[in-house]
Amino acid sequence: MLDDLIAVIDQFETQIAGINGGRQALIDRAEVASAFVFACRHHADQKRQSGHEFITHPVGVARICVGMSLDTATLCAALLHDTVEDTSASLAEIDEAFSPGVSKLVDGVTKLTEITFESRDERQAENYRKMMVAMAKDVRVILIKLADRLHNMRTLNSLPKQKQIAKSRETLEIYAPLAHRLGIHAIKWELEDLAFATLHPRKYSEIKHLVAQQRAERDTYVDEAGGFLSEELKKVGIDAEIAGRAKHFYSIYTKMTKKGREFNEIFDLTAMRVIVGSVKDCYGAIGVIHSLWKPPARALQGLRRHAQSEHVPGAPHDGDRSGRQAARDPDPHGRDAPPG
Are residues 257 and 278 in the same domain? Predict the structure, then answer.
């Protein structure tokens, strides 16, 4: 398992070096390995409800954290996040064994785990989210907690049905909105889809099947529209990375329920993301997009600092199709938003 984790670290460091012009945000592999050994020793006799070794969970959480390009201290804390709560390990031991800050992150995650949310009221859910953010002090604590919830949702089937439902509701009400607030869209989407599959399995399977039926046609459209847009941006000197994806299933479901529509009445099943190198190019790209496709009024109202806007355009080659596009500059902290 450690070799697999190190391999994931190697892969992401190579990708980061490509984005940053050869500069790497190096992870201290020796300290990560020490955290793995510490966690293995303290979780040695523990099993998950699935029957798997407990260590598979913290390693899974750490792998998700690697995907968010987090630092050495965060990866170590991810591996150790259950040791204080579930084993005989103490914060003092962790503080002595690892670099400064690791024990504080573990303590923060432990404290968040101790609070429970039972209300279904949206105002109470919002208060709970605010309390989590206030208690965390360091945003990395929230990121570890999101990774913890995502891994637990991926392995939810081993729990009794009522616990699966309770965890899924909590995920939709607390954790997915937190991921959205932090701009970690890939995690938000996966959390929502996993919870949706548990709470409404028949609807989930139906939408998944319908989306899969149109995949080839949709991929062709995205390739054509993306290529067309890329050429238009090059004409005005804007280099862009353009990627397309299908709307996630929970997003389609909420649109169907809120607007009272059938699946065949939902036209924006495809999204495109345009990433450029500066805020100036961001607004320039939006200008090009608006010249090619007419945006709805709600997109213009939602235009904010990151220059992210929604559109329901007609395709350049086929006017009866629709899609969704967003143009944005890279993350101000140097990390691009995870691809959709």
Answer: yes
Active site residue 86: yes
In a domain? residue 338: no
Question: Active-site residue among 71, 86, 107, 232?
Answer: 86
**CA separation (Å) from 23 to 20, 30, 292, 329, 333?**
5, 20, 37, 20, 15
Does residue 336 have an active-site annotation? no
Q: Of 4, 10, 85, 126, which is the active-site residue?
A: 85
Which pLDDT score, from 0 to 100, does residue 268 have? 67
Q: Check which CATH number belongs to the domain holding 274 and give it.
A: 3.30.460.10
Would you say residue 337 lies in a domain? no
Verify that 294 and 150 share a domain, yes or no: no
Number of domains in the chain: 2
pLDDT band at 213 (very low <50, low <70, confident <90, very high): confident
- pLDDT band (50, 70, 90) for residue 262: confident
